[in-house]
Design goal:
By secondary structure, the protein is α/β, with parallel strands linked by helices. The strands form 2 sheets. It has a 7-stranded mixed beta sheet with strand order 1-2-3-4-5-7-10, sandwiched between helices. Strands 6-8-9 form a 3-stranded mixed beta sheet. Strand 2 and strand 3 form a beta hairpin. Helix 6 crosses helix 7 and helix 7 crosses helix 8. The longest helix is centred in the last third of the chain and has 15 residues.
Length: 275
Amino acid sequence: MAEDRIEVDTGTEELLCEIRDRVALVTLNRPEARNALSDQLTPALRRMIRQCGEDSRVGALLITGAGTAFCAGGDVKGMGNNSAKAETPIDERIADLRVKQRTLTGALVELRKPTLAALPGPAAGAGLALALACDIRIAAESAVMTTGYARIALTGDYGIAWLLTRLVGTSRARELMFLSERIDARRCETLGLVNRVVADAELRAVAFSLARSLAEGPSQAFAGMKDNLDHALATDLLDSMDQEAAYMVRSAQTTDHKEAVRAFIEKRKPVFVGH
């Protein structure tokens, strides 16, 4: 049987995308720069996040990096040489960054499809925020994470404070931000920054296998789960249970639920259709 594989034009060689078995595999492709964000890569990544959210052919989104890094974040070398940016009024620069953040990591968090990050190596700064904005993170044994901002006297962006605080708690988030230490994959797993650590050679296969299993899953139920989990961060128990009750009863009416029950009785794998 021929593999279901669709190449997607991202508009730049710095970002690659293909849809395979309902998984959108998005690869940051600047290995010579440890996949640091650039003026070509970042807008393309924003477009792909939005496009994958709207594409019915995509059941899950998997983001990774080419070579031996995930994403080194912003281009530090270029930060002191951008005279045009320095001449832009500060209010305009703030407004511009707010839009950029909302349409990158903000859009990734808001995506109602399962999202995964596969880390073959370092994730730093905004690159770390990109990984943390995904639902699930799988790291190679040689991967490391660092906030990095303190090392260049910056405060952090792309949701790093919000994401870290919710994943590791207030005290650990402060430690990670203030010290900007390089945290190895096993400690990242202990802290809750990554879900799984696998051998370097197995990363791609393991991450894609997990993404494919999610892409084949009940997409409407996954969207509802994400709604419930997000809602739980900002409300009390009773309100959270009230929303769960509404979503649970509605999900019980779906074709996918009925198919899952039939498959359970017939001892076979369910085939979900997304409604």
